[in-house]
Design a protein that fits this description.
With 441 residues, the protein is mainly beta. The chain has 1 helix and 42 strands. It is globular. Helices cover 2% and strands 43% of the residues.
C-alpha cells in the first residue's frame, strides 16, 4: 500500500470561484513546470508533467498542479482520482484531456482547459462513469468540439465507452467549434450517456450547439445554465433506431443563438419521448420570431412556462452573464449569482473596447459616401450592424460580418443631411463601438 507520509494539506481555497468546494483539498501528489518526473511527486518535490501526476494517483487521492502552462495531452486512467489546480493558482492544460473507459469517479476541477490538439479531437472527452468536471474554464479556440460525453459509431454501437451519470457543473465553456460554423462542433455534446447533469455553467459563443443531445442522450438534466450566443442553444436529436429521450431543460437562460433557434429538435428516425423544456428564459437571435426561438416543428419535446424576455446580463460585452437585479429572468432562471469557473486572469495594460470603428467620408452625388472599417473581438462570421443617428432619428445603415482577424468593412452612400450624423457598430451580442461623428454636407 502506498505510503502517505508526503501528503501536503493545503488550507487555502480558490477565491472567487463559485463552482469549487470551500473545503481544503489534500494534495497527495503535485506537479510543477519546474519539477521533474523522476521526483517523488510530493508538494515539496513535484513531478514536471500533468500526465505523470495523473498516473501516480491511487483511488481517493488528489493531484494538484502548480501555476503555469502544461503543453501536453493527458489521458486519465485511474478511477476515483481528482486532478485540480493548486488552490489560488492559475493553471492551464493545453492539449486534449481524455477520461478513458474504466476511469470511473474521476473529478477535474479549477483548471483552464485549452483543448487544442494536432488531430482536433474533442476535449475534454469522457468515456467513463460518474465523472465530474467542476469549476473549469473550457475552450479550444475554435478548433473543434469541447465536451464529448460518451462516443459511439454511426450505428450507435458504443465503441469507446459511455459517460453515464456525468456531472458538468459550474464551468465556463466557450469559443468551441470551427469557424465558419460546420454544424458539427458543440460546447457540450452528449452522445452516449444516461443521467448526465449539466448545471450552472456559462456556455457561450460556441460555433454550433451550446448543448447537443444526440443521438443517445437519456435522462439528461440541463438546469441553471446561461446558454448564450451559440450557433444554436439546445437540440434534442436522434439517428436511426436511437433517439434522445426523457431529458429535462429547465431554469436556464437560452438566448441570442446566431445561426438557428434557441431550442430545437431533429430526428433521423423516430422522435424521442419525454423531453421537456420548461421554466427557461428564452429570447433573441436568428431564430426568434416572437416565440423566443423555440422551434417545436419537428416534435419530440414539450415546451411550457418559458419566459420570452431579454435576460438583462450585467455586462454581456465583457462576458459577464450574471443577471442584473432588474432582470425579468430572475423569476424563472436558476443561474449562478457569481461567475463560475476559476478566477479570470487580471488584464494587463489599458482595457480596449470589444468593437472599434473608423469612418471615412467623401462627397458623393446627393450626399456622402461613407467607408466604415472596424475591428471586433469576435469570431469570424459574427453579424455586425452599422447604425446611423441624426436629428431625424436613427436607422440601420448596413449589415456586414466579421472577417479574418476580427476585421469588418461596409460602404454606403448617405443622402444629404443638415448637420452631423453619428455612426456606431453593434455586434449581435450587444457589444458596440463608440459613436463616430461625421460632418454633414
Amino acid at each position: 500500500m502506498r505510503a502517505l507520509a508526503a501528503v501536503g494539506v493545503i488550507a487555502a481555497g480558490i477565491a472567487g470561484s463559485a463552482g469549487q468546494s470551500t473545503a481544503a483539498p489534500v494534495c497527495a501528489r503535485a506537479a510543477s513546470p519546474s519539477g521533474s518526473d523522476s521526483a517523488p511527486g510530493t508538494p515539496s518535490a513535484p513531478f514536471r508533467t500533468a500526465q505523470r501526476l495523473a498516473d501516480s494517483l491511487a483511488p481517493g487521492e488528489t493531484g494538484c498542479l502548480r501555476a503555469g502552462t502544461y503543453e501536453q495531452s493527458v489521458t486519465i486512467t485511474r478511477a476515483g482520482t481528482t486532478l485540480r489546480s493548486w488552490p489560488g493558482e492559475h493553471v492551464t492544460l493545453l492539449g486534449r484531456l481524455w477520461v478513458e473507459r474504466g476511469a470511473d469517479g474521476v473529478t477535474v476541477e479549477g483548471l483552464f482547459l485549452d483543448g487544442r490538439n494536432a488531430k482536433h479531437l474533442p476535449s475534454p472527452t469522457i468515456n467513463a462513469g460518474a465523472v465530474t468536471f467542476r469549476g473549469n474554464d473550457v475552450t479550444n479556440r475554435n478548433t473543434g468540439i469541447c465536451f464529448l460525453l460518451g462516443a459511439s459509431d454511426m450505428g450507435n454501437n458504443v465503441k469507446w465507452g459511455r459517460a453515464d451519470e456525468a456531472t458538468i457543473e459550474s464551468n465556463r465553456i466557450h469559443d468551441c467549434g470551427r469557424l465558419p460554423a460546420t454544424n458539427h462542433d458543440h460546447g457540450v455534446y452528449v452522445e452516449a450517456a444516461s443521467g448526465a447533469r449539466i448545471a450552472e455553467n456559462w456556455i457561450y459563443d460556441n460555433a454550433d450547439r451550446g448543448v447537443q443531445l444526440y443521438p443517445d442522450a437519456q435522462r439528461t438534466l440541463v438546469t441553471g445554465n446561461v446558454i448564450d450566443g451559440n450557433g444554436t442553444g439546445v437540440i434534442f436529436s436522434g439517428e436511426g433506431g436511437t433517439a434522445s429521450s426523457d431529458n429535462v431543460v429547465e431554469g436556464n437562460v437560452i438566448t441570442n443563438s446566431d445561426v438557428r433557434e434557441n431550442v430545437e429538435s431533429w430526428w433521423g428516425g423516430e422522435p424521442g419521448h419525454g423531453n421537456v423544456v420548461r421554466g427557461n428564459c428564452v429570447h433573441g437571435g436568428a431564430g426568434d420570431h416572437g416565440d423566443g426561438g423555440i422551434n417545436a416543428a419537428d416534435g419530440g419535446f414539450e415546451s411550457s412556462a418559458n419566459l420570452m424576455d431579454a435576460p438583462g446580463f450585467v455586462n454581456r460585452r465583457a462576458n459577464d452573464f450574471r443577471l442584473a437585479q432588474s432582470s425579468p429572468c430572475r423569476g424563472v432562471a436558476r443561474t449562478p449569482e457569481s461567475m463560475p469557473g476559476p478566477p479570470r486572469p487580471k488584464a494587463r495594460g489599458a482595457r480596449h473596447r470589444a468593437v472599434t470603428i473608423s469612418v471615412r467620408s467623401r462627397p458623393a452625388r446627393g450626399g456622402r459616401r461613407l467607408v466604415i472599417r472596424g475591428h471586433a473581438r469576435a469570431r469570424s462570421g459574427r453579424l455586425v450592424t452599422i447604425r446611423i443617428r441624426s436629428r431625424r432619428g436613427a436607422h440601420v445603415l448596413a449589415r456586414t460580418h466579421v472577417r479574418r482577424e476580427g476585421r469588418f468593412r461596409a460602404v454606403r452612400r448617405v443622402h444629404a443631411r443638415r448637420g452631423p450624423v453619428r455612426v456606431v457598430a453593434v455586434l449581435a451580442n450587444g457589444a458596440r463601438s463608440r459613436s463616430v461623428r461625421v460632418r454633414g454636407r
